[in-house]
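User: Continuing from earlier, I have the next pair ready.

Assistant: Great, send them over.

User: Here they are, in order.

Assistant: Folding the first of the pair now:
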Amino acid sequence: MDSTDRKAALEAIIYAADEPATLDQLAASLGEEKLVVQSALDELVAAYASDSRGIEVRAVAGGYKMYTKPQHHDVVRRFIKSLRPPLRLSMPALETLAVIAYKQPVTAPEISDIRGVNASGVISTLLDKKLITTAGRKEVMGRPILYKSSKEFLMRFGLSDLDELPSLKEFEALAREALGTDEGVAPAPDESLLEAVPADTLENLPIPEDSTGTSNAANSQPSHPEPSEGSA
């Protein structure tokens, strides 16, 4: 395999992979030494760094993955938004979505503790709209269901993966843009997302990798009585 064929093969594998492709995986797939493959990877990364390319090959999480370049994120989000009709979300649903996105995987009782209200009805709405999905059960008493953001969430917000989540201060504006500023987000009281979701609780939390495991249950109930806000 010559240098051109090697880089083309690496490009195809990285494009097709759902998760970052590691050097070991790439070398094994090509049947070549890791030093040779690493050299080809460096050349591939450099080639995609050109301003004439809209995507890049980025070293992330111990492997290599393709991303859209930051300067094109706005146009990509507009394109993705144009493919889907706007969602109608209440402010409680938007606030709950923010908690799940930044603290995932998280249980319904944990969401309710952060927001101060029973979030089970809103969680059901987000499941119905496919913005979140189940992520197994937490290994604690009662084994409550864990929730995480879905691929539909990433698509709606024009994100390649969770590493591209914006800061909490940017999230509300991004959500209104992605879900529809006027027609997509239901009218709400003058209460900002950051006031509803305390920054000291969520700010700077690490974004974990997607959890494994699935569950068919739709939602779980909090372990103690709380005021309910109903469905979104």
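And the other member of the pair:
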Amino acid sequence: MSEPVLIMGDSGAGKSYSLRNMDPKKTLIISVDGKRLPFKAKDWPKISSDNPEGSFYIPARVSPYGKIKAAINAAVDNGKKSIVIDDSQFLMGNEFFDKAMEKGFDKFSVLGQNFWKLIEFARDLPDDIIVYFLHHIERDPFGHIKPKTIGKMLDEKGSVEGRFTICLLAEKVEGENVIHAQLDDQSCVKAPFGMFEKSPMDNDLAIVDKSIREFWGL
């Protein structure tokens, strides 16, 4: 069983920038919204018909889930060990706007089901694979955070953060981007005890990835 990891944060909190030290030969970045990487990306070639073994993939907006799963399977077959789904909340957002003129509530069930099944897929890969979901957050009136969703299905019938053993929070603190593994006032920020040396830690997914693999012997 592979390991899905949720990394939450506001826009500008440094989620994408944390990828800068990941090894392109062992990592696939899936840019859901098609944004450029916030660092020099010459070592991150796009997947194309001429380069199916690339490290950067922008899925088509229409019906992206099947394409994303196919890209992940191909990346695993080509030796990639870490998969990053950047801006994963836009999978729901884009699908919502594509269906905006459809009446009724069935579309919200489809949105929730598609995302739920993607998490399931991310758990059923080979044991040494880690799939990172980089995801925006929303806050309730009391300041408690949760992964951003659309509709009530994922919140009321399930729990996105509950599907992950590791839920980290990227945040800017006193002008520095950091990653939290736990916060006293945010119960959804969590990680196994002893997995990370400190919290907050440097905003570097390569360090996070190394710590997880060493802790579980992946």
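Worth noting for the second one:
The domain at 3-197+206-216 is CATH 3.40.50 (Rossmann fold). Helices lie at 64-77, 89-98, 106-123, 153-157, 205-216.
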